[in-house]
Amino acid sequence: MRIAAPIILLCMLATGASAGQYDPLFKAWGASRSVDWRLLKAVAMVESSFRPCVVSRRGAIGLMQVLPLHARIRGFAYPRKALCDPDINIRIGSAYLTHSIALYGQNGGLHAYNVGRKGYRDGRRNWKYVQRVLRWYRAYKEKHP
Q1: Residue 81: its pLDDT value, please?
Q2: What angle, rounded to 10 degrees, do the helices at 86-115 and 23-33 form?
């Protein structure tokens, strides 16, 4: 299914954040991690709608919905409130996503990012999440070829 451009624009406007506001950070961390910055942006859109301090019911924080435990496991020692900083959050989220993609491929990596690696290994999948991320990814690739 293809989303019409006006609907995408409406969704972006409804987020309260400029869709391009964090592009320099997505580009920098994407280049650093060898992952397409538009995929990072798509994950952030689905995870948080670009709200830098949103906290999920599971305790995931920020643009990329980083769990503090995952940050510590990846070697990032920041206080919880630092995960609201878009640069720190994208740095950690991009590291986690890149590692997940390296282990499981793009779609598997997106699943693992969403349900956790243990959940992924236990067979949990969220196809709707992956489809939403890929839909935004395609939209960003069309907008920023």
Answers
A1: 87
A2: 60
Dihedral, CA atoms, 30, 98, 57, 18, nearest 10 degrees?
10
Task: Return the bridge partners of 55, or none.
Answer: 61
- Rounded mean pLDDT of 43-67? 95
Task: Please give the full DSSP string across 20-61, using - where no structure is assigned.
Answer: TTTHHHHHHHHHHHTS-HHHHHHHHHHHHTT-TT-B-TT--B
pLDDT digits (tens, 9 = 90+) for 78-94: 888 899 999 999 999 99
Q: What is the pTM of this model?
A: 0.84
Rounded Cα gap, residues 93 and 40, in angstroms: 8
Which of these CATH numbers, 1.10.645.10, 1.10.1370.40, 1.10.530.10, 1.20.1290.10, describes 5-143? 1.10.530.10
Q: HSE (CB half, 13 Å, CA atoms) of 98? A: 17
